[in-house]
Amino acid sequence: MHDIMVIGGGVMGCTTALRLAQGGLKVLLIEREGLCMQASGVNAGTLSVGIKRASLIQYAIRGSNLWRTTPEWAGFDAGFHQIGGLTLAFNDEEAEMLTERMDARKANGAPIEMVGLNRAKEIEPGISNKAVLAAYCPIDGYANSNEIGSGFRGALKRAGVEIKEFTRVDGVEREDQGYAARTPAGIFRGKRVVIAGGVWLEELLKRDFGINIPITCRTNMVSVTERLPPVMRNVLGIATSLLTLKQSTNGTVLIGGGWQGKGDTKRGGYEIVPENLLSNLRLACYVIPELRKARIARTWLGIEGNTQDVMPIVGDIPGSPGAFVIGAVRGGFTIGPCMGMLLAQYILGKEPELPLFDPTRVIVPDDTIERVAS
Ligand SMILES: Cc1cc2nc3c(=O)[nH]c(=O)nc-3n(C[C@H](O)[C@H](O)[C@H](O)COP(=O)(O)OP(=O)(O)OC[C@H]3O[C@@H](n4cnc5c(N)ncnc54)[C@H](O)[C@@H]3O)c2cc1C
User: Fold this and answer.
1) Which CATH architecture does the domain made up of 85-138+216-306 adopt?
2) How far is the CA of 327 from the centre of ligand 1 (A)?
3) How confident is the model at residue 372, as a pLDDT?
4) What is the per-residue pLDDT for 353?
5) Could you tell me the CA-to-CA distances from 44 to 2, 143, 149, 209, 368 in Å, in that order?
6) 5 - beta bridge partners?
7) 12 and 30 in contact (C-beta within 8 Å)?
8) Residue nearest to atom 25 of ligand 1 (CA)
9) Does domain 2-43+146-214+308-368 have CATH number 3.50.50.60?
10) pTM of the complete model
11) Which of 43, 81, 270 for mutating ligand 1's site (highest number of atoms within 8 Å of CB)?
12) Any residues with Cβ below 6 Å from ligand 1, and which?
């Protein structure tokens, strides 16, 4: 019997499992596909502290710092680059909104400087002259999300975690000694269990723990251009959109977030929505006019989940002693390693460095589920 089972091998599950093993527990990680093949491996890799919710700024600062230091705590290089981030407003209304949001983020410790067009153009010469105000966050950057699955696999093995990939958990049941996870490869047992199922948390929590936490599915589209000469230096964002763009060291520009694709975990049918994709690409060209000359090499989709209050759920699963949940973190690539560390601290009996996020607040009775439009 393992001390603890972690179900779901995205960034939340991998970092929790790794920290628990480093804390001396015998850990089993079970993942339906390969490690970090879902949201955690197909995301845009942006590590933007400057665009996180004010109340999550401290989590994002720690998360970003943990990506920078993976060689020290996980023994692999996640391709961290700190290049700075610039979020732009294009009219007075957007400028007001940007100022208000950034004030709240600054009050929570984000090192943000508000700059006018001239200074913004010194920081990022390629931006459109139509910007009227910008917020500059020097600690923003990116990491290589598509490489972290293999990085975590090595790290987990070195830490002694037993990994079952391509093993779907069909049910988790409570037993005298802890929990049993039913899979096509047999039943696995752990004294405790962590559910880290990403956008599938609603389904897993309802099926196995009888609690109802509505999770809204967001179908994000990410596009990558062909290799280009340098057209931008920073991670760029827009005050009114969740779209971000940045140029990698190999010259390709990644454009992710913004208007959404289609599909959700209930119906499946994930699809690119061409008019939304075009709107994202037009917006990117509006921000960096030089991008009009670029050709898109590839566009892909990935799905992530949000709770009704768009805040994380990290902590005890109510009514199930020894069972924990972690997920639904907006900007979860940036913040994930911090959340995994905090949950592991809690499970190991230490005081977490920052507060966890009690899932009880977003539980709704079965008959009152209100779906928030994605
Ligand atoms: C396209 C896209 C772009 C994004 N861009 C950014 C960005 O630039 N910056 C940023 O900070 N954040 C970004 N995000 C958000 C971020 O990627 C996610 O918040 C984060 O990766 C979620 O991690 P997770 O471990 O909770 O979920 P996941 O990575 O989805 O992992 C959950 C895992 O649980 C497994 N699982 C589910 N059910 C079972 C079962 N029954 N048995 C076994 N395993 C199961 C799944 O297979 C999956 O691997 C983006 C998200 C997407 C989709």
Assistant:
1) 2-Layer Sandwich (3.30)
2) 8
3) 42
4) 97
5) 34, 9, 15, 32, 34
6) 28, 193
7) no
8) 10
9) yes
10) 0.95
11) 43
12) 7-13, 30-33, 37-40, 42-46, 168-169, 196-200, 220, 222, 256, 302-304, 327, 329, 331-334, 336
Alpha-carbon span 334 to 195, nearest angstrom: 20
Residue stretches of the chain with pLDDT short of 50: 369-374
Q: How far is the CA of 328 from the centre of ligand 1 (A)?
A: 9
CA distance 277 to 194: 36
3-state secondary structure 10-77: CHHHHHHHHHHHHCCCCEEEECCCCCCCCHHHHCCCEECCCCCCHHHHHHHHHHHHHHHCHHHHCCCC
Domain spans in the chain, listed from the N-terminal domain onward: 2-43+146-214+308-368, 85-138+216-306
Q: Which atom of ligand 1 is nearest to the CA of 244?
A: 8
Q: Distances from the Cα of 97 to the Cαs of 85, 91, 145, in angstroms?
A: 18, 10, 30
pLDDT of residue 373: 39
